[in-house]
């Protein structure tokens, strides 16, 4: 007679490394596990299942993974029925090598088969041996999978996965595959479903969001999608990340400016201000085009906050090349920049290029770039002192809030604002208006009294400890609260 596998009482934790795409994938993994009867582990307890959702792009990705696995090995020695699963980009890249280096790992799965996780966990338990399953192409679009959302007031919505670009420093296309676009109707169905449960803000997500529509031959698809989001009643803020300068067209600028709920915020990677380095990176634009886009964005939206990504020390970068980057940064007046020191990524063309720069040269240039951008960020933030801002109250973003008696929110342009508020009345997910009184390079402060406070359904849900769970496409409606206990699967 077969014996049920008792998953209903087992607990899980998902640990995420890397980009927003990984964060959203982790919501899907949590949703899959809960749909299979697992429940989130309580803080301070050792879960029955630990899932590491890995990154292969960030520096020291391997060290972070194996450092975490080393710690989990000691936990697992005392908790014999614990299972460890490794997914994400590093799993897609390293495959069976992970089990060879860490034989206590139970499951390895890739970026193309997230939905297989519950089955692989069951198979590993039943067979008492590690399961490694890496698909070479997308098995199921992630948004077809259930998701346990991290936030009651802000949600990720994938519009595409994969990337068709060939940047020489990036391994993402080989790990995420070619770009695959969702039908606009599916995207809007997910947006409406989230809003129906009180979510106020969505971020449209893709490796290259503004090439959306390439797969089905509609170059206006992304601008049209932004405009369509403007017709979703109850949706107060729309953001997107990340666009590519090559595909950034004026119709997107027009849609941003004309659609009332699309935030005047743009994160557009520069990577380098040197045309020679951009060519070596296979970035199919040059600095003049990049600056032209910023000019047109600011002409249409003078209040736009623009942020970027920059890599310092790419192979062959000369002092003149680096100075060109400083010049473009000075001209761009970014509100913030995410800056990275180039490091070799095995499997990328740049890793084998000649003229790899010494660490001390890269470090010195990096520090000069940071100093310049800090001055610019501070100057741009100072322009906002005295201005009234609308804030979506956030949770977990103000590390010093408890000590200062402040709360934290995000302005419509994405800036972080610490404000004087009564946490017994104002909840994360609510909307407040306040006046900026002080500016620092990385945040703003509003010390005066809150000028207005609007309670929202999102705030109600935060107060009640409820978060949306989407069931996947056709998406239906999200539901709030703990998942129903799934019947235990039967082996036989």
From TrEMBL:
Residue ranges annotated for the Radical SAM core domain, each copy included: 149-380
Domain MTTase N-terminal, residue spans: 10-126
Reactions accelerated catalytically: N(6)-dimethylallyladenosine(37) in tRNA + (sulfur carrier)-SH + AH2 + 2 S-adenosyl-L-methionine = 2-methylsulfanyl-N(6)-dimethylallyladenosine(37) in tRNA + (sulfur carrier)-H + 5'-deoxyadenosine + L-methionine + A + S-adenosyl-L-homocysteine + 2 H(+)
Cofactor(s) needed: [4Fe-4S] cluster
Major place of residence: cytoplasm
Protein's cellular compartments: Cytoplasm
Subunit field text: Monomer.
Official protein name in the record: tRNA-2-methylthio-N(6)-dimethylallyladenosine synthase
Organism: Cryptosporangium aurantiacum
């Amino acid at each position: 007679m077969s014996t049920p596998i008792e998953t209903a009482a087992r607990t899980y934790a998902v640990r995420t490394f890397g980009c927003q795409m990984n964060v959203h994938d982790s919501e899907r993994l949590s949703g899959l596990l809960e749909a299979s009867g697992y429940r989130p582990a309580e803080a301070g307890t050792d879960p029955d299942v630990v899932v590491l959702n890995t990154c292969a792009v960030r520096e020291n990705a391997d060290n972070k993974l194996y450092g975490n696995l080393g710690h989990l090995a000691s936990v697992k020695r005392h908790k014999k029925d614990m299972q460890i699963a490794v997914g994400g980009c590093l799993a897609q890249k390293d495959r069976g090598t992970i089990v060879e280096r860490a034989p206590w790992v139970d499951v390895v799965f890739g970026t193309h088969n997230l939905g297989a996780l519950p089955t692989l966990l069951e198979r590993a338990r039943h067979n008492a041996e590690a399961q490694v399953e890496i698909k070479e192409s997308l098995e199921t679009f992630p948004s077809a999978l259930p998701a346990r959302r991290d936030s009651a007031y802000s949600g990720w919505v994938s519009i595409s996965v994969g990337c068709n670009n060939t940047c020489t420093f990036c391994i993402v296309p080989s790990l995420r595959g070619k770009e695959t676009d969702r039908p606009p109707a599916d995207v809007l169905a997910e947006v409406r479903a989230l809003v129906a449960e009180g979510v106020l803000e969505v971020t449209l997500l893709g490796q290259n969001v503004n090439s959306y529509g390439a797969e089905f031959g509609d170059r206006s698809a992304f601008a049209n999608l932004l405009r369509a989001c403007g017709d979703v009643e109850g949706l107060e803020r729309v953001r997107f990340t990340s666009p590519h300068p090559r595909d950034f067209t004026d119709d997107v600028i027009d849609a941003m400016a004309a659609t009332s709920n699309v935030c005047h915020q743009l994160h557009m990677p520069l990577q380098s201000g040197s045309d020679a380095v951009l060519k070596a990176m296979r970035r199919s634009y040059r600095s003049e085009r990049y600056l032209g886009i910023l000019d047109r964005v600011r002409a249409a939206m003078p209040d736009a906050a623009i942020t970027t990504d920059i890599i310092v020390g790419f192979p062959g970068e000369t002092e003149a090349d680096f100075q060109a980057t400083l010049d473009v940064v000075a001209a761009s007046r970014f509100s913030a920049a995410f800056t990275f020191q180039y490091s070799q990524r095995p499997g990328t063309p740049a890793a084998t290029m000649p003229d790899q720069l010494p660490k001390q040269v890269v470090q010195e240039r990096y520090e000069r770039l940071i100093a310049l951008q800090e001055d610019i960020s501070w100057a741009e933030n100072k322009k906002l002192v005295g201005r009234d801002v609308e804030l979506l109250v956030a949770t977990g973003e103000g590390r010093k809030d408890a000590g200062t008696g402040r709360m934290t929110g995000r302005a419509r342009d994405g800036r972080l604002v610490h404000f004087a508020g009564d946490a017994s009345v104002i909840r994360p997910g609510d909307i407040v208006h306040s006046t900026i009184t002080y500016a620092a390079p990385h945040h703003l402060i509003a010390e005066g009294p809150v000028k207005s406070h609007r309670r929202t359904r999102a705030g109600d849900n935060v107060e009640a400890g409820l978060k949306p769970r989407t069931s996947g496409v056709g998406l239906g409606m999200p539901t709030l609260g703990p998942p129903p206990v799934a019947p235990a699967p039967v082996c036989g």
